[in-house]
Amino acid sequence: MQRMTTTEDLTSVEWRDINWLERVGGFQNQQMVLDYFALSPFWDRQCNNQVLSMQTQYNDLRQSYEVTVEALRKMTGIEFAVVHEQPPVWIIQKRFRRGPALDDVNPIATYYIMGANVYQSPTIYSVIANRLVK
Q1: CA–CA separation, 105 vs 70, rounded Å?
Q2: For the whole model, what pTM was predicted?
Q3: Integer Cα distance of 57 and 68 in angstroms
């Protein structure tokens, strides 16, 4: 049985941590983008990315982004992935993985980082509903 996944509407929230970016020298790769995103209120602490991170945080087994992506494909459940990057904009997708195929995922929510600011993208439904009300 597939579990229903929902996400809290945080489209009115803007988050940033300038100190973190200054300390690490900005975004140098997709893993750093996800590390930054993991500090935000949008991050799901029960996601597969967090599970993999917790398994390797104290034993110097920190994996490369490519190895992490492969490990995530072997798991089922909620994961986060950078689906588009064109600095200074990165798009991150929260999704439910059903199986190991690349397209065996259901999108749950989309977030974007613009510069140092992190936002939740509104759903198509909310955009259309707001346009119809006006």
Answers
A1: 14
A2: 0.85
A3: 13
